[in-house]
Design brief:
The protein is α+β, with helices and mostly antiparallel strands. It has helices at residues 18-27, 53-64, 156-165, 177-186, 188-198, 253-264, 334-351, and strands at 76-86, 102-112, 127-134, 140-146, 211-212, 217-220, 226-235, 267-275, 295-307, 328-330. A hairpin with a 5-residue loop joins β3 and β4 (140-146). It binds protoporphyrin IX containing FE (HEM). Protoporphyrin IX containing FE binds at residues 7-10, 29-33, 56, 60, 71-74, 77, 109, 111, 128, 130, 144-146, 151, 156, 159, 213-214, 285, 318-319, 335, 338-339, 342-343, 346-347, 350.
Length: 372
C-alpha cells in the first residue's frame, strides 16, 4: 500500500462550453505532489481496492499520456516571482506573520490545466496560479488556485470518475456522450456546479484572470477565534473578454502575452479573503458561498519577473494546499487531503525523471520567440 503523500489536480477545458470545461477538467488531472504529511484519508484510501494517490496519478497518465519530468496536471507553466504587500487587514483574522503589514517574498507559477506539456494554448483551458509566500521569519504558505468559481465535483473519487468518463474515444477524439451522461446522472453536484462555471466570463489572458482558492480553510487570530474562509486573487489589470472564435498562430499566445506584460510593467492582483457564515458548507468546493459574504482585501500581489519554468525555483515547488503557516488551517474538505497526497505522488514521479521534450509553455520565453 502506498503512503498517502500525494495530490490531484484538475484540468481546463476546450472552448468555453460548460460540458467542454468539465471534460477538460477531467483531462487535466495530472499532477503535483506534496510532501511528507501522512493523511489518514477517510474516503477509502487505506483499503486495498481503494483509489490511492498512485492509482489516481496512473489514471492521469493514462488520460494525458506519459510525459516524463512534467507535472501530471497543469503540465504547462512558467515561473514567476515578486512580493506580497500586506496592508495589515489580515492581522485581526489570522495570526500568520504573512499578514503583518509589510512585504513578503513571493514565488509562483502560472499554468494551464492538462497533463500534456505540448498542448497548444486555449482561452477555454482552466488557468492555474500557484503561490508561495515566505515571510522574513521563514514562515511559508502555499496555495494553488484556478480560474473556475467552483470545482465541478465534491470528492476525489468523483473527480477520478469524471476523468475516466471524459476520456477521449480513440475513434472520435472526443468523450463518449453516454459516459458523460451517466456521470452527470450519478453526480448532481456536478450538474449544479456546471452552470455556474459556464456563465463565468473568460478573460483574454493570465494578467486579467481572477484566481479562486475554492477549498475552505480556517483563519485563527491571536485570541484563538477561528473563522471559515475562502480566498480569491483579483487582478488590477482590466477585464477584456476572450474571443473564443479567434485562431492563434502562436501556439503559446497566453504564456507569451503574460511574459510580454510582465516585461512592460509589474502585474498586480489583490488577495481577497471571503468570510464564511456558520452555516456555509466548508467541505464542498462544488458549492458557491452566497455572494453577500464579507470580503476583506489583505493586500497586493505584485509579479515583477517571469522565467522559463526550468530556470525558475517554482519548478521545484509542490504547491501543496496543505503547506500552511500557524494561523491558517484546513477544513475537512476531502479534496484537500486528496490533493496533498496526489500532488506528492506527482512530484515524486516528476522529480525522479528527465524531461525528454520541451513544454509548449517554454516557447514564449525562448529568445528566438522575440520576446526578450
Ligand atoms: C481531486 C482534485 C484534484 C486533483 C486530483 C488534482 C491533481 C493535481 C496534480 C496531480 C497536479 C500536479 C502536481 C505537481 O506535480 O506538482 C496539480 C496541480 C495543480 N492543481 Fe490540482 N488537483 C485537484 C484539485 C485542484 C483544485 C481544487 C485546485 C484549485 C483550487 C487545483 C489547482 C491546481 C493548480 C493551480 C496546479 C498547478 C500548481 C503548480 O503550478 O505547480 N487543483 N493538481
Amino acid at each position: 500500500m502506498e503512503t498517502i503523500n500525494e495530490q490531484l489536480t484538475e484540468t481546463g477545458h476546450p472552448h468555453g462550453s460548460n460540458e467542454g470545461r468539465l471534460m477538460r477538467m477531467c483531462a487535466v488531472i495530472l499532477a503535483v505532489v506534496v510532501g511528507g504529511t501522512t493523511f489518514a484519508y477517510a474516503g477509502g484510501w487505506l483499503t486495498p481496492s481503494a483509489l490511492t494517490p498512485s492509482r489516481f496519478v496512473d489514471t492521469l497518465e493514462q488520460v494525458s499520456g506519459n510525459h516524463p519530468g512534467y507535472r501530471r496536471n497543469h503540465a504547462r507553466g512558467v515561473g514567476v516571482s515578486g512580493y506580497f504587500e500586506s496592508n495589515g487587514n489580515g492581522e485581526k483574522l489570522s495570526r500568520a506573520s504573512i499578514f503583518k503589514p509589510g512585504r513578503v517574498e513571493l514565488l509562483g507559477r502560472f499554468s494551464l490545466s492538462g497533463g500534456n506539456p505540448q498542448a497548444a494554448d486555449s482561452v477555454g483551458e482552466v488557468r492555474g496560479l500557484g503561490l508561495q509566500f515566505t515571510s522574513t521569519n521563514g514562515e511559508t504558505w502555499r496555495t494553488a488556485m484556478i480560474s473556475l468559481p467552483v470545482f465541478p465535483v465534491d470528492t476525489p473519487e468523483a473527480f477520478h470518475e469524471l476523468l475516466i468518463a471524459s476520456r477521449p474515444d480513440p475513434q472520435t477524439g472526443k468523450p463518449v456522450p453516454s459516459a458523460m451522461k451517466e456521470f452527470s446522472a450519478k453526480h448532481p453536484e456536478s450538474a449544479a456546479a456546471n452552470p455556474i462555471i459556464g456563465k463565468t466570463p473568460i478573460s483574454d489572458g493570465f494578467a486579467n484572470t481572477t484566481f479562486h482558492g475554492l477549498n475552505t480553510f480556517y483563519f485563527t487570530n491571536r485570541e484563538g477565534h477561528a473563522v471559515p474562509v475562502r480566498w480569491i486573487v483579483t487582478p488590477e489589470q482590466p477585464f477584456r473578454a476572450a474571443d473564443t472564435s479567434e485562431t492563434h498562430v502562436d501556439l503559446s499566445f497566453l504564456f507569451h502575452d503574460l511574459a510580454g506584460a510582465v516585461h512592460q510593467s509589474p502585474l498586480r492582483w489583490h488577495l481577497i479573503v471571503i468570510l464564511g457564515h456558520p452555516d456555509d458548507p466548508v467541505d464542498d468546493a462544488s458549492i458557491a458561498w452566497d455572494s453577500t459574504r464579507e470580503r476583506v482585501d489583505l493586500g497586493v500581489i505584485v509579479i515583477n519577473a517571469v522565467e522559463q519554468e526550468q530556470d525558475s525555483s517554482a519548478d521545484k515547488i509542490n504547491f501543496d494546499p496543505l503547506v500552511l503557516p500557524d494561523g491558517i488551517s484546513p477544513s475537512n474538505d476531502p479534496l484537500l487531503s486528496a490533493r496533498s497526497a496526489i500532488y506528492s505522488q506527482s512530484f515524486t514521479r516528476r522529480a525522479g525523471e528527465t524531461r525528454s521534450l520541451p513544454s509548449q509553455s517554454e516557447l514564449p520565453l525562448n529568445k528566438e520567440s522575440g520576446d526578450e
